[in-house]
Amino acid sequence: MNNKNRYMPVMLAISIVIGILIGTFYANHFSGNRLNIINSGSNRLNNLLHIIDDQYVDKVNLDSLVEKAIPQILAELDPHSVYMSASDVQATNDDLKGSFSGVGIEFVIREDTIHVQAVIKNGPAERAGLLAGDKIVTIDDSAFVGKQVTNQEAMRRLKGPKDTKVNIGVMRYGQKGIKQFTVTRGEIPQRSITSTYMVDDNTGYIRIKNFGETTYGELLVSLATLSQEGFDNLIIDLRDNTGGYLDRAIQISNEFLPKNKLIVYTQGRKSPRQEYRSDGHGSYQQIPLIVLINEGSASAAEIFAGAMQDNDRATIIGRRSFGKGLVQQQIEFNDHSLIRLTIARYYTPSGRCIQKPYEAGHDQDYELDLITRYEHGEFFSQDSIKHTGPAYHTGIGREVFGGGGITPDIFVP
């Protein structure tokens, strides 16, 4: 073997080692510091996004990554800590603030087409000539039928700033062709109280859909109306009331409670106990009261029902309520999206936690809870209600149960 062949394996090995050293040098130079930062603690997510933006093989939309990552992180906490996009925030605020700017129709989507169910009296759509039963097929001269028709997209196209115009084409029963209407958008009231009337000569009835900005004022008007008709008893219907603002639930509770009665308190790991009590200025402290609830009654509705039950102020009738008793703090981002982060829990005056049990990261089980209740027969028999928490007692010693939601005094299937 000649000398050249003899030293070839040695030269090859040296070349490989040099290559590894050079590669290691450049790897450390360009990415080693960042990798160390990633492993260094609380800034890992921010640094990870920076590295992806700087080094990933393809161009990445970081905003889209963040939009997808935030909900996944919050899903590991509890079912009500959530991320809301700017559009979702706007829709939620519209539902609670008492009004929004739009055309003034109620609709459903059937067979990929908008069907007008009702036209709000004296609203923009009624003034323009739209009728219940119309099928909307074009918006602003573009076809709007088929799979593109969703509630969210329909609301996006129909809502808009006050005094702006939208062209709507409809198919009307018994008429040929498409009828065109130009609707000037306006303020559309969102009423929390959907019904006020006398059930009989002595009993008034008020149905509250949610606890929004205008709910307390609406309630006072409804109570004044019933007073003129001479009511001596009152039914407040909170069935399928999904909740809303805590302060509205407290204001309304205050109308029916004597002075210094505990309405609700909140408490969390870093949130000390905070109590909310009645001030004694309520005008209807003596009126006999019934509150109707069901599995769709949640949050602020449960706070009101729990306050009335624990203070022995009302008879609660119906089915066990939803069990949503977590306090959320809103944290807004620059683009007007936000997160609602749970910081405490709601407790009724007797000490019951309104929130039903949940397991972090198991949202599907939580969401299927109502179906589970149905399958167990809870909607049909009071004996099927499973109380997972201890018993508590009202002011006069009546037994009430914790473990999630408000259990009615009188069960109605």
Task: Produce a short descriptive summary.
The chain is of the alpha+beta class and 413 residues long. It has helices at residues 3-38, 44-55, 62-74, 86-97, 124-128, 151-158, 215-228, 246-254, 300-310, 363-367, 369-375, and strands at 82-84, 99-102, 105-110, 113-119, 135-139, 142-143, 165-171, 179-184, 186-189, 193-198, 203-208, 233-237, 262-267, 274-277, 289-293, 315-318, 326-332, 338-347, 391-393, 399-401, 410-411.
How do the strands and helices of this protein lay out in sequence?
Elements: H1 3-38, H2 44-55, H3 62-74, E1 82-84, H4 86-97, E2 99-102, E3 105-110, E4 113-119, H5 124-128, E5 135-139, E6 142-143, H6 151-158, E7 165-171, E8 179-184, E9 186-189, E10 193-198, E11 203-208, H7 215-228, E12 233-237, H8 246-254, E13 262-267, E14 274-277, E15 289-293, H9 300-310, E16 315-318, E17 326-332, E18 338-347, H10 363-367, H11 369-375, E19 391-393, E20 399-401, E21 410-411
Parallel strand pairs: 11-12, 12-15, 15-16, 16-21
Antiparallel strand pairs: 1-18, 2-9, 3-4, 4-5, 5-6, 5-7, 7-8, 10-11, 13-14, 13-18, 17-18, 19-20
